Amino acid sequence: MNWKVKMNNRLCEMLGIKYPIFQGGMAWVADAALAASVSEAGGLGTIAGMNSNAEQLRAEIRKLREKTDRPFAVNIMLMSPFAEEVSDVVIEEKVPVVTTGAGNPSKYMKKWNDAGIKVIPVVASVALGKMMEKNGACAVIAEGLEAGGHIGPLTTMTLIPMLSDKISIPIIAAGGIADGRGFLAALTLGAEGIQMGTRFLSSTDNTISPEYRMRVIKAGDRDTIVTGEKTGHPVRSLKSPFSREFKKIEDDDTKTLEEIEAFGSGALRRAVKEGDPEKGCYMAGIIAGLVNKEETTKEIIDDMMESLGKELNKVKSWNLK
What we know:
This protein is of the alpha/beta class. Helix content is 41%, strand content 14%.
């Protein structure tokens, strides 16, 4: 039986997408190939701006447009030394949606809104979510600490309902979601869509190293670790020789912040591009324990919608009164 549900909420209508499923803006992972495959499958694909300069990002946007004419997003990392110049590139290239991370995008929001760009910041607190709505965001991505990569202090389970009580724009839930159960839970908590990163690491349409993909697929429920708390930029990744050594170094009071940051430099790229088993940082969320096979992006998104339908059917069978 086909349980796939149809959704046409205000998030889908606003962005022109079939399903309210966003792909996370994962540095070195979220390139034109993966983003195009997500958009083609009905979600919102995202190109990671990471530390790209203007021309590097422009080239990636144009690569995506050769693969799809559907809506997509560019994620701008506000800590990037090139944030100012790429904030103009998304206007010049008429990017339909911008998501932001690692900071407060308020200084750029007016010019993006004036250019007709839909601005959807990633937030990790109610206060930042309220500020983003006030400054013109059309929606926010609320990310809990279950997520992979850079994380905030609150869980998805607590952040979504608290934020939904305080803002009126749509919320996209991120962190700890990889199947229909998580999707339905997010909707119940007050979200109108979801963002996934870790599950898309298993997609055969991405360009990450086979080593990275297999580590995610083989991960269990206790196979992630948080490092970088001493630097003020905590990161969740899979346990590995690198992450264990990083934890030792940051727990060593004789090490300076500069030494700690230098040790971590380039580790994500080594994981994504080289599959380095010793010096690679394999960012992934706790939900990696539910990701257990390789699939195409279309199969992942179709499964998310079908499993959501199955979960909705279960709720109907409870005969609640």
